[in-house]
Amino acid sequence: MQSMLAYLRKHKHDHIVVIIDDISRLARSIETHLALRTAINSASGRLESPTVEFGEDSDSILVENLLASVSQHQRQKNAEQTVNRMKARIMNGYAVAPIAPLGYKYSKVDGHAGKVLTRDEPLASVIVEALEGFASGRFETQGEVKRYLDASPIYPKDNSGEVRFQRVTNPLNKVIYTGHIEMPSWGISLRKAQHEALISFETFQKIQEKLNSNPKAPIRSDVSNDFILRGIYQVRTLRSSNDSLLEQRPK
Predict the structure, then answer these.
(1) pTM here?
(2) Which end of the chain is more exposed for a tag (fewer CB within 10 A), N or C?
């Protein structure tokens, strides 16, 4: 739309005609429709459509505004119906996210309406190893989980060949890996889901307890009488939206 308006202003004296298939294709709301109509007119453009006749008299403007309002209502109604269908599906234990969580894929399964999350191997096994390793203490910190995932040839990496820290924290906090589902923002409480769990709910709880506790530095294997101060530093993980930072300070 911005490119079109810029073109109209550049060729203002050519009185260019803007053709739309239907009034609903111009804008998603009555406010935006009116703003675009004003902008097109200001650039000496003329709006036309095979389904509606645009005019500048009071009756034509009234009909146009009514049609634009009806179009907005239809979009809002469709959106409400879509959300209601998604809510109902979640309440029945089905995931509705357009992209499946890492380790899962959407598949048709007999006895289920629509598609269901199923294990996506071998990525599912890699995620299980990471989650259970963190819960059991095999991986003491999220940084160790990241190093494990960095070493995996199949875990998604960024352009630099590293695992983004968000792809480490997200699986650690997703209850969906326990075979449960919830949507607090829609008032849908935790419930058993229709898909197979990758880890137990008890393992997930251990992960959350560990995430909410004071972080510990892993015990170093190279501590000796010659370097007795090794291992007495506290590692604190600082996260931002773009990267992670490890900061060391003496206890």
Answers:
(1) 0.66
(2) C
